[in-house]
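explain this:
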Amino acid sequence: MFYRPEDGHGLPHNPFNAIVTPRPIGWISTRDAQGRDNLAPYSFFNAVAYVPPQVMFASTAAKPDRGDTKDSVANIRETGVFCVNIVSEALRDAMNQTSGPWDREVDEFAHAGLDKTECETIPCARVSAAPASLECRLTQIVQLPGAANYVVFGEVTGVHMQDDCIIDGVFDVLRFNPLTRLGYQDYSVIREKFALRRPGEKA
């Protein structure tokens, strides 16, 4: 099968998200200028650079009470900071609860029954139970083609890792089993891993 996106795919559901999988989930916590906390998951998320460490996430929809975007991007515009919380299998239901189209006044931490902890380097909350969290300062917001497509880039200024996830000096994802996003309404969990060395690479 071949299709041009501008012509449509003719399938019951858009296959694009099912092709680009699995995708890590960035559970983005933000705080608005009035001090209200927000938490929402984004599957257009990834790390993009080592030195300095940098991440990105993309927001592709808008809410009526936020104009051209959603709460996360609107809050980051106001404060210039955000935190990326990593989603473990154990947190999947709480993560899903925070994905709803809640009003801007709703604290998704409270709505999902999640404890929060203050970040160390930025004025923002993080998910206490997350296996890892990345505190970030905004570097740029890029508007992409499309009505509500924004990519947010941030420099990581603080890194939290749960101590029990560090085994023999390695952050071991099998200790918490990251949740990943597939297409449609599908998710998956990382339960196994293997190593591959690049040509010429030493152990």
